[in-house]
Amino acid sequence: MSEQAGRRRSGAPRIEWPTVALIAACYGLWGVAAWPLWGVAPLIAFLLLVLTIALQSSLMHEASHGHPTRNALANEVLVGLPIGLVYPFRRFKALHLRHHADERLTDPFDDPESYYRALWKYEELPGWLKALLSFNNTMVGRFLIGPAIANVGFVLTEAKLVTDRDAAVRRAWLHHAIGLALVVPLVLFVFAVPVWAYLAAAYLGQSLISIRTFAEHQWSERPDGRTIIVERSPLSFLFLNNNLHLVHHKLPAVAWYRLPALFRERRAEWVKLNDNYVYPSYFALFRDFAFRRKEPVVHPVLRRAPQPGMAFRPRVRQRNVSGLGTAPVPAEPPKE
What is the pTM of this model? Predict the structure, then answer.
C-alpha cells in the first residue's frame, strides 16, 4: 500500500493546514531575513537564513512522504523552491523512499542514506579520504565536513547519471534548474545578503540537519533495532519531530505534528521495539561522540567482499549521500 493510500485509510485530512502554514512561514521568514532584515541586523538575518534553509530541508522530507496534500505535484510545488541550492526535490524524494526499505537499512549498496562503506571498496580509497571519512563519523566532523562530503559525492554521481542519459534524473534536474532560476537572481540582484554569506548559510543549514542524521541508523541484526529515538531536543521542531525516528519509520504516512503524541502513548513499546537504541537528547550524543567515532566507516557485517556476478546485475541508479563515491539502489522508485 502506498503512503498516500495509507493516509486515506487512516482518515488523514486532505490538506494538513499546520504544514501548509509552516511552509508559508518558512519561505516568508527566508525572504525577510535575506532582504529587509539583513540591512538592519545582519547577524540575526544570517542565523534566520540558516534556520529557514534547514527547516525547508525538513519540509522536503515531509513532502516526500505525501504531505501536506494528497497531490504529489502540489506538494512538490509547495516545497520545491530550492533555497538550499543543492538537492532537487524529485531526486531527494525518490532516493529517500528507497531508504525506507527497513530490511535494507545501513547496507552500503542498497540503502542510499547509509554512512557505512563496503570493506572491499573502502580498501581502494587513498589514506587522506579514509581519514576524512573517519572524522566524518564523529559528531563534530559530521557538522563541519559532512555537508561537503555528501554534496561532492551527490553531484559527481548525479552528473554521471545525467551524462548516461537517465531520463528521470534529467527531468529532476530540469525542475531544479527552474527553481534555481528563481532563487539565484534573487540572491544576486535583489536580496541584500552577500553571495558568500548566503552560501555559508546554506552550508550551515545542511550542518544543522546533519545533527539529526548523525546517529539515525546503526547496524543491528533486527531491522527495527537500526533506527534511533532521541526523546527530546530544542531542535525537534526544526527537525519536524524526526528525532523520534523509529516512529517515523514505522508510520511514515503520519504527519510530523502527530509523532510526539504517538510516541508518548506507547513509549515502552517503542523503546522495546528498537532494542533500547534511545538517547535522551542530542547533547547526550555530543557528549559521547563529539570527537569519537560512533560507528566504524566499514560496515561491520555486510558487503565484506565483492559478490560473484555483480557485473551481470540489472542496471541500477547509484547514490550514496554519506560520502564520496556511490552506492547502487533499485532502478525504480516505489509506486505511490
Answer: 0.88
